[in-house]
Design a protein that fits this description.
The chain has 411 residues and is an alpha/beta fold. The protein is built from 16 helices and 14 strands. The strands form 3 sheets. A 6-stranded mixed beta sheet has the order 1-2-10-7-8-9, sandwiched between helices. A 4-stranded parallel beta sheet has the order 5-4-3-6, sandwiched between helices. It has a 4-stranded antiparallel beta sheet with strand order 12-13-11-14. The longest helix has 17 residues, at 154-170.
């Protein structure tokens, strides 16, 4: 049986009714900054403002709402790095079901604490979500608990699809939807809903998926015609770092999604930073993937566009690192190493040069203890705020014109 065929518009509309009172109808905001960049109206679907901080609550709630009385009595088990964990835990609390959640060692502390706060029993074990999913499956076999898969189940997909209904109700002339992809549950549900509603209106709508390039299983899977497993790469977008598409989600994405693009880590960091600055929204890297694609010029302007911002659960320490990295990636922050002759006035002269080009000094390290220096040399390492790549180039040129040999320090 093709379980993907069970995900229909009628099922998604049923899910919308089941979510009433638990999941929120999140807002859609017009985004002028991104509209100007794209050359078409851009709206943001703000699932980062959903209860539990991400879209995952929708699929979890609908899945749990359809359990039988016997299944509810046996409890549920899930595996997640954070967002699915919180969604299942909150839905279980609201529906009076016991929940056990396996989370990987090193899972973000805020997500772990939130999951516990919703009343779930949390087991931290395994290095990856895949290992946790195997442990959760063993737990289900051993105890009789119902396994709530993070994406590969028709009810979960239908629950996520309710976002598509809301988008087209709020932006009825939408021509393109840009959606983050991990295992495919979110984009599959949104695509089923959006394509069906658009077809009913006698028009087409374009669906574009966005994956983190470091762990992007859909492009090779689509090329092969079946799900394939890729190696897990290091990515800040842990929420979409899934190494293999689902058996149910894959055919839905293959048949309904028009294009899948990938974004790099610097582009994800820039998207988080831009959302913070331009829209005052705190968004996790996976949730910002759709914006990263717009900023990277990967989305074609074809009319009103909705970018799905899928989650906002970010560790403050990670946010701090991302902001710093994003500033570097966008040309807003630069650290320069400058060898200097060891005589008075050199530090003042460099400071005057930097002030002359409008580079704001943040931090200075002046030392004689550096490998490769002679007894008559020192090295100055200075971190400055800049206004972009062109300003950085002007800053370096001003130093070179004064006879110095500046070197940009990576990272």
């Amino acid at each position: 049986m093709n379980a993907g065929g069970e995900v229909t518009l009628a099922r998604i509309e049923d899910a919308a009714r089941a979510l009433a009172g638990i999941a929120q109808r999140t807002p859609v905001d017009h985004a002028s900054y991104f509209s100007d960049l794209l050359g078409a109206p851009v709206h943001l679907k703000l699932e980062n403002l959903q209860r539990t901080g991400s879209f995952k609550l929708r699929g979890a709630t609908y899945r749990l709402s359809r359990l039988s009385a016997d299944e509810r009595a046996r409890g549920v088990v899930a595996a997640s790095a954070g967002n699915h964990a919180q969604g299942v835990a909150f839905a279980a609390q609201q529906l009076g079901v016991e929940a056990t959640i396996f989370m990987p060692l090193g899972a973000p502390v805020p997500k772990l604490l939130a999951t516990k706060g919703y009343g779930a029993t949390v087991v931290t074990d395994g290095a990856t979500v895949e290992e946790c999913l195997a442990l959760a499956a063993e737990h289900a076999t051993r105890t009789g608990a119902v396994l709530i898969h993070p994406f590969d189940h028709p009810d979960v997909i239908a629950g996520q699809g309710t976002i598509g209904l809301e988008i087209l109700a709020d932006v009825p002339d939408a021509r393109t939807l840009v959606v983050p992809i991990g295992g495919g549950g979110l984009i599959a549900g949104v695509a089923v809903a959006a394509k069906a509603v658009a077809a009913r209106e006698g028009r087409d709508i374009r669906i574009v998926g966005v994956q983190a390039a470091a762990t992007a299983a859909f492009p090779p899977s689509l090329a092969a015609g079946h799900p394939v497993t890729v190696e897990r790469g290091g990515t800040i977008a842990d929420g979409i770092a899934v190494v293999r598409p689902g058996e149910i989600t894959f055919p839905l994405v293959r048949d309904l999604v028009d294009e899948v693009v990938t974004v790099e880590e610097d582009q994800l960091a820039r998207a988080v930073l831009t959302l913070l600055e331009r829209t005052k929204l705190v968004v996790e890297p996976a949730g910002a993937a759709s914006i990263a694609a717009i900023l990277a010029g990967l989305i074609e302007a074809s009319g009103p566009t909705v970018a799905l911002v899928s989650g906002g659960n970010i560790d403050p320490l990670l946010l701090q690192r991302i902001v710093a990295h994003g500033l570097v990636a966008s040309g807003r922050y630069m650290t320069i190493r400058i060898p200097l002759p060891d005589r008075p006035g050199q530090l003042a002269r460099v400071s005057e040069l930097l002030a002359g080009v409008g580079a704001n000094v943040i931090e200075v390290l002046h030392t004689r203890h550096d490998l490769g220096l002679t007894l008559n040399d020192v090295v100055l390492q200075v971190s400055v705020e800049t206004r972009g790549p062109n300003h950085q180039a002007d800053t370096l040129e001003a130093l070179r014109a004064a006879g110095y040999e500046p070197e940009v320090v990576a990272g």
